[in-house]
């Protein structure tokens, strides 16, 4: 018999002040930029300064987010660590490639290369925890976090593990960001976060962040929500998005009317936000809708921030004004559907339920 999967602890380092779990978007940081960085906690509270100096920003964010999640779940150890990342520690990758060019492929030190691999984050967290269990990293572009989530869900349902730390992390790299600007993946103009969806231009506002979750097949007082189902598509034509959503709900014995809230990954890109319009104006036009990428920016694992947002809403039953997308009001939040895609590819549907 399959077991249920619960979110028992969360930790988020983002472009908002989300590292304090006793707060929930009390202060909306209305960034005005093309690229937004995280609001850093005081890392010295979590990591010895000497160790922190040697860590890439993605590693520091992830170590702190995972510690916050574990602390909330009342754990010092987990059975497994599963990470999703699109670009890994991209700054160290850039350093190593630059060194190859600058030093004419000679006298290279391996440090940046060693620290640039995508599984560095999972490995560093395992070293911090002395966790010798299953440790896997998924690099599936903007479905990286969902791939990690599916893996964890399967293992917990089958009872192979009992507690798993799952996270999504990506950091900003100067050279990579410049390339995205050249190919119009980043907006050409400076945009205020609160006005992102009114920009009507190509590209997104890029960001970074780390969001980690303690998943378990045992419910406890700290539990946020139950993870019902996750479904991913590499490609999905715009005309089929609405039907895919309906079919996903039916596979979980749900109807459109059963959904109290839809969490959408709109990023203000005029070319691709139309995928969300298939749900906004048609299937879920009478359902309360929220969005989140104006808060955290766009990156490969930005959907993990949406997962964080949905978890907080289900536990607190509070919906911050800064994420509202329409004027429909739900009396309570019991079942939440998340939908994300990036540039028309790597679509994902996730269902969460109040406990």
TrEMBL record:
Signal peptide: none annotated. Residues 46-218 form the Beta-ketoacyl synthase-like N-terminal domain. Keywords: Transferase. Pfam families: ketoacyl-synt (PF00109). InterPro entries: Beta-ketoacyl_synthase, Ketoacyl_synth_N, Thiolase-like. It comes from the Bacteria. Gene3D superfamilies: 3.40.47.10. This is Beta-ketoacyl synthase chain length factor.
């Amino acid at each position: 018999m399959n077991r249920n999967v619960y979110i028992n602890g969360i930790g988020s380092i983002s472009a908002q002040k989300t590292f304090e779990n006793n707060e929930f978007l009390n202060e909306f940081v209305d960034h005005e930029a093309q690229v937004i960085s995280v609001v850093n906690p005081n890392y010295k509270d979590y990591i010895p300064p000497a160790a922190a100096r040697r860590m890439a920003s993605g590693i520091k964010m992830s170590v702190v987010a995972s510690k916050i999640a574990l602390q909330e779940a009342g754990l010092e150890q987990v059975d497994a660590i599963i990470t999703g990342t699109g670009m890994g520690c991209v700054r160290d990758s850039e350093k190593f490639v630059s060194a190859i060019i600058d030093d004419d492929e000679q006298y290279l030190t391996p440090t940046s290369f060693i620290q640039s691999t995508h599984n560095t984050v999972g490995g560093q967290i395992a070293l911090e925890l002395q966790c010798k269990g299953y440790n896997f990293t998924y690099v599936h572009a903007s479905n990286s976090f969902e791939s990690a989530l599916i893996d964890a869900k399967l293992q917990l349902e089958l009872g192979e593990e009992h507690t798993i730390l799952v996270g999504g992390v990506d950091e900003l790299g100067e050279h990579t960001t410049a390339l995205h600007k050249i190919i119009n993946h980043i907006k050409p103009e400076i945009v205020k976060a609160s006005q992102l969806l009114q920009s009507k231009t190509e590209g997104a506002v890029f960001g970074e962040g780390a969001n980690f979750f303690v998943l378990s097949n045992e419910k406890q007082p700290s539990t946020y929500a139950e993870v019902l189902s996750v479904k991913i598509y590499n490609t999905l034509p715009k005309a089929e998005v609405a039907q895919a959503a309906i079919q996903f709900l039916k596979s979980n014995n749900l109807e459109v009317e059963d959904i109290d809230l839809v969490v959408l990954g709109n990023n203000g890109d005029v070319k691709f936000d139309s995928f969300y319009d298939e749900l906004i104006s048609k299937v879920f036009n009478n359902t309360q809708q929220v969005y989140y990428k104006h808060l955290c920016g766009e990156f490969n694992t930005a959907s993990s921030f949406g997962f964080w947002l949905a978890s907080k809403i289900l536990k607190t039953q509070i919906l911050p004004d800064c994420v509202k997308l329409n004027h429909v009001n739900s009396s309570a939040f019991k079942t939440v559907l998340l939908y994300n895609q990036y540039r028309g590819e790597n679509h994902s549907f996730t269902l969460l339920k109040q406990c």
